[in-house]
Amino acid sequence: MRPLLSVRDIKRHYQVRVPGGFFGRDALLKAVDGLSFDINRGETLGLVGESGCGKSTTARLVMGHIPLTAGSVAFDGQPVTARHDSDWRAMRRRMQMVYQDTLGALDRRLTISEQIGEPFAIHEPVMTAGQRHERALSLMDSVGLRADMARRFPHELSGGQRQRVVIARALALSPDLLVCDEPVSALDVSIQAQVLNLLDDLREQTGFAALFISHDLKVVRQMSDRVAVMYLGKIVETGAPEAVFKRAQHPYTKALISAIPTPRNRGRRERIVLEGDPPSPVDVPPGCAFHTRCPLAMTQCRLDTPLLSGDGDHLVACHAIHQSAQSAPLAAE
Amino acid sequence: METQLSIRDLTVDFDQGRQFVRALHGVSLDVAVGETIGVVGESGCGKSITWLAALGLLGKRATLSGSVKLAGTELIGASEKQLSSLRGGKIAMIFQDPSSSLNPVHRIGHQLGESLRLHRGMTGEQASAETMRLLDRVGIANARQRLNEYPHEMSGGMNQRIMIAMALAGEPDILIADEPTTALDATIQAQILDLLRELSSENGMALVLISHDLGVVADMAERVAVMYCGRVIETASTDAIFDNPTHPYTRGLIAALPDLEGPKRRLASIPGTVPPPDQLPPGCSFAPRCTHATPLCDVALPALLPVGPDAGHSVACIHSGPMRVEKSKAPARQSVTAELEPA
Question: What is the tens place of the pLDDT at every residue in A53-69?
């Protein structure tokens, strides 16, 4: 079966100026550096990583908001480009986005029903204003907004309600793919649970596929069918949530998981505290980008970039893990 | 245990021009010497306001009443001069966003030196030696070079370490950390929490950890206070709060949190939203969202009363009262009715 979204070795590099010399010097910021993944119909891929690892850039590349430096993105077999022509607009109708900053994502001079009806105004110009309003009301009902909010403006709603508006608007045209960039990071715990449950229910009803981006491992585990962990522009580990979170192999994933305090594991979690900060994406270390903070780093890690490999669905990009996987069967003999 | 800081019936009213809005409705909390206490709640619940009020940092628009005693000294109504000698000295505070708490146009060394001069009267050689020691203490490598850098040249985690170093400059007895790791990445958060834990155990410094993250609080605190709409609604030891939560809101918060372990389950969300502070219901402020609410909840304001077998476990819910009556008879019923009459 052809995947709905197929991302192959995408890269996005930026020319930046960094301090150095009298006027600074040119440098290359590798925000996304060789990323490949597929999303099947109805499947949710969770993308986790710390700030600056390229999660949001990936979202924008997938949507065709910014051009690729290298690689390709195909949506239902069609290449996604940053040329915003009629092909892209037709495709864009089937891929929608949910943002973290809801106040920024909504037009603050449009009422809620106008916001939610706007996709129809763009993609279905034959609809009358009355019909749009009707559709908006039924969408509001499906995301749990009261009908009397239709005439309100974004600033009159709470953060959780605004996120519901953004979700309703994104789902207006029944898209096949929903790209969610940190959809619940700005919300309080009790509201976060409401929005996550809502997304879960809507996915069940409409069957959209999703690229779910978050820095919060707990949220990603809750929402995803498959998980990819990113570090400095690359995927370091990917697999089913249970595999990645319970049998994490990559030292970065392990550290990330051990760094998350939860009420359940209080006082008895294995703690791996990484030294130092992640390197800047302008100065990505050669070889494995994680070797500067890795407890397992070897000489090879400074020289070669490890590739994602493993058995089945659970893939890891780490020399140390690959080596021990190779030597294990030998030792058994 | 000896009490370091004691807050009694603290209320805060904000003057909004046309009306006064009450943000805190009589908060009482004790912090023992060397203790780590976690304060959790959602945004707008008053968890930060409590401590800003205690330190006199709320400005002229806020009217305070109640009492805040720091080692016997009353802070409410104290003069600005008295307060400023205590702030940064006996009691220090760090905030969520370290880069906006630091002055962007001064070098790190200068800013640290300033707090040493103000609180410990150190200058020159002595101050710079102490600055180096502090930076070293908070785990900043090559301190000598860092002293000459500006906040923007450092990462968020580094800046938070600088803030902690600055807070330590006055050798405080109590450190208030308001969402100290919220703006930081998970791996950096783990570093900063470790540092805070280490510092508080080594210096015998009490730590007040304000956070919306139940995980962080569960990990760090010995005792937890849960706040909702300007009131403490449940307080207990960390184990009691998470193993035996009693208030429906606390239970709801814990159930709403996705987990990394265990079977995947549907999250139990709390319906509705937090009411704005000027539109609180007359009774229990959680009643409109509470699944256990009865008509009594809409009229009776529950008091924070002891509950259960654990010492120091108190809950503000009238439904936790009668349940306890069944077990231990009379006194609880009296206190519930006593609470009803004035309302």
Answer: 899 999 999 999 999 99
Q: A284-292 long-range CB contacts below 8 Å, 24 or more apart?
A: A284/A30, A284/A33, A284/A232, A284/A233, A288/A317, A288/A318, A288/A319, A289/A231, A289/A232, A289/A233, A289/A234, A290/A231, A290/A232, A290/A236, A290/A250, A290/A251, A290/A252
Q: Domain end: B221, B243, B267, which one?
A: B221
Task: Sort out which chain A residues have CB atoms less than 8 A from B240's CB and list them.
Answer: none
**Same-domain check for residues B258 and B278:** yes
Class of domain A5-94+175-244: alpha beta
- B132 inside domain: yes
Q: What single-letter DSSP state applies at residue A309?
A: B
Asked if B190 lies within 8 A of A258 by C-beta distance, the reply is yes
Residue B278 forms part of a structural domain: yes
Q: Are B290 and B182 part of one and the same domain?
A: no
> Tokens 């070293």 correspond to what residue?
B136
Residue B14's domain comprises: 3-221
What digits encode the pLDDT tens for the residues B248-286? 999 999 999 988 887 888 898 888 888 888 889 989 999
Please determine, for residue B324, whether its predicted confidence score (pLDDT) is greater than 70: no
Residue A265, pLDDT > 90, answer: no
B257 touches chain A (CB under 8 A): yes
Write down the pTM of the prediction: 0.86
Looking at residue A269, its pLDDT comes to: 67
Asked if residue B298 and residue B164 are part of one domain, the reply reads no
- Could you say which of B221, B251, B267 is where a domain stops? B221
| Cβ under 8 Å to A: B residues 119-148 | none
pLDDT tens-place string over residues A204-244:
999 999 999 999 999 999 999 999 999 999 999 999 999 99
